[in-house]
Amino acid sequence: MTxxxxxxxxxxxxxxxxxxxxxxxxxxxxFYEKLLRESDNEKIELRLGDIVxxxxxxxxxxxxxxxxxxxxxxxxxxxxxxxxxxxxYELADEFLTDPIAGGSQLEKRLSxxxxxxxxxxDARLHGALG
Length: 130
Known about the structure:
single chain; mainly alpha; 4 helices
């Protein structure tokens, strides 16, 4: 079962960003599948750390490209990135406190945030960079 599906409207028209979006979707889907099957909370925590690292690196790439192109929505887009990272850290803490409830929240919030961010902020970025 997958949590997120790549859709054409997620494309920003920059190959490196689009490739990373696909990789993030795959990483999140793999994490979700393992979350459903895995009972070792330490392994789940490590996988969550991998997601945070990949997302952080991806955001750094997007933000560099936005700065280089003097993208007018840079500040708002960067703020959305920072909010997501804060939420992921909160979700990780929730997971460590209560793995069942925390896992459920991870599923709901990661999926909704990425779909919303791709369809909103990154769709507008496509218009500027693509």
